[in-house]
From TrEMBL:
This is Condensin-2 complex subunit G2. Signal peptide: none annotated. One of its GO terms (biological process) is mitotic sister chromatid segregation. Residues 89-108 have a biased composition (Low complexity). Residues 88-112 are annotated as: Disordered. One of its GO terms (cellular component) is condensin complex.
Length: 284
């Protein structure tokens, strides 16, 4: 007689459930090596396991606890990166006189390697956050706390970890676009728009960088009202945007310039002067 097979007996689904529980256990134990391993499987086309599948099989309470533990990991790991940024090259006074002259460079190279490893741990957490958004799951407070923290430190992350900075900004952008942030709480991503704008002003900036800013265009009028923002820095960035060829050559860029002019009424003369000095024929 044939036996009825329950849906949960599907080996692929069972494997996903087991990995979901194992993910929770690894994070709770702060097993960062296992977390990175799962992140690698998540991105591999050869593996059945994905964060998206694993999260579907977890309860809301389990996900909340997962993010509580992830935040502990992220803060601890981020301190390593911030320490590298603030201290720079190793303190030569602590170097042994018997070491070769190249030892400081070797030490710095070693520190960079550590930061690269740490960035993979933080990236794994960001990947889990993206999976939650893809599943349209209720956001945990822990995830929002991570977003606030990463937004705050984005400019403390060294340039050789640019991919990590871009991942942080992209997560903030996606949450902003999907309206996951309640009215008034958008300020937790204020560094994201500044980061995106700075990327557009780099040498050989691509049109994609302008589109990143355009995706958060509605944020532009709000940024001057935020207490944590350096108004003068933002104004200088806005002036550069209004005269940057990559903006002037794109419809999205021109719309951003319009938003800047509308948002900066108290500084309109200063911005107009910047435009006129770049385009002498522009009469505004």
């Amino acid at each position: 007689m044939a036996m009825n097979v329950k849906a949960d007996s599907n080996p692929l689904k069972m494997n996903s459930k087991i990995k979901g529980k194992n993910l929770i256990a690894a994070v709770k134990a702060q097993d960062t090596a296992k977390l990175v391993e799962y992140a690698s499987e998540n991105k591999s086309k050869k593996q059945v396991f994905t964060f998206k599948k694993a999260l579907k099989d977890l309860t809301t309470k389990e996900i909340d606890l997962l993010w509580e533990d992830l935040n502990k990991i992220i803060i601890k790991q981020a301190e390593i990166i911030i320490s590298f940024t603030t201290k720079g090259s190793p303190n030569k006074s602590k170097s042994s006189p018997n070491k070769s002259k190249s030892s400081p460079n070797k030490s710095k190279s070693s520190s960079k390697k550590v930061c690269m490893e740490v960035s993979r741990i933080i990236q794994a957490s960001i990947d889990i956050a993206f999976a939650m958004l893809d599943n349209n799951l209720t956001l945990s407070q822990g995830l929002l706390h991570m977003l606030v923290f990463l937004n705050f430190i984005i400019f403390k992350i060294p340039d050789f970890l640019e991919s990590l900075k871009y991942s942080i900004a992209s997560l903030c952008e996606k949450m902003y676009q999907l309206n996951f942030l309640e009215a008034g709480s958008e300020q937790i991503t204020f560094n994201t728009i500044i980061y995106f704008i700075k990327r557009t002003l780099q040498q050989r900036a691509s049109k994609k960088t302008v589109k990143d800013v355009y995706a958060m265009q509605s944020f532009i009028p709000k940024i001057f009202t935020m207490s944590d923002v350096d108004v003068r820095e933002v104004l200088n960035l806005y002036k550069k945007c209004c005269t940057a060829p990559v903006y002037l050559s794109m419809l999205e860029g021109q719309k951003i310039i319009t938003s800047i002019l509308i948002a900066s009424t108290s500084h309109i003369t200063e911005i107009q002067n910047a435009i006129e000095s770049y385009l002498p024929s522009a009469a505004m």
